[in-house]
């Protein structure tokens, strides 16, 4: 019986080693470079930072960062990404009750450090309250920013 247990454990260890070996060979490209792991929502593109404010400049960076707005303000977000992969970048703006105020997406091709601008405006004015900007990459929520309209 003791020999059977030993062989069962040895077989499990061998299977684990084979599975690990196969996994690493699947991620290598024919040129030997490691391909980006896109399984389970992983991507080589990542959100480095999100800044919100009232204006953006020509480089798509926020020029006057704030997290407090008036009802008539346009609200801008500058999403700083890094990495080298194509992905769908989404800005989902929600009100304190979870209601989606607006959602916009852009397909971007990262080339290192990039900035993408999103904005929302409501001519009739925003209701006072707390809001959240959700930034998603390929449908996965990767960063949030809270702000208030007073």
Description:
This protein is 17% helix and 43% strand. With 150 residues, it is α+β, with helices and mostly antiparallel strands. The chain has one domain: Distorted Sandwich (Coagulation Factor XIII, Chain A, domain 1). The strands form two sheets. It has a five-stranded mixed β-sheet, with no helix packed on it. A three-stranded antiparallel β-sheet has the order 1-3-6, with no helix packed on it. A hairpin with a 2-residue loop joins β7 and β8.
| Oligomer designation | single chain
First-residue to last-residue Cα separation: 74 Å
CATH superfamily: abc- transporter (atp binding component) like domain
Written as H for each helix and E for each strand, in order along the chain, the element string is HEEEEEEEE
The radius of gyration over CA amounts to: 23 Å
Query: Which CATH first-tier class would you pick?
Result: Mainly Beta
Q: Order of strands in the sheet with the most strands?
A: 2-8-7-4-5
Q: Unreliable runs, pLDDT <50, ≥5 residues?
A: 1-43
Counted beta strands: 8
The figure for the number of domains is 1
Coarse structural class: alpha+beta
User: Portion of residues in helices?
Assistant: 10-25%
Strand content: 35-45%
If you consult CATH, what is the topology?
A: Coagulation Factor XIII, Chain A, domain 1
Name the average pLDDT: 79
Number of discrete helical segments? 1
Choose one word for the global shape. Answer: globular
Largest sheet: 5 strands, mixed
Examine the secondary-structure arrangement and name the CATH architecture: Distorted Sandwich
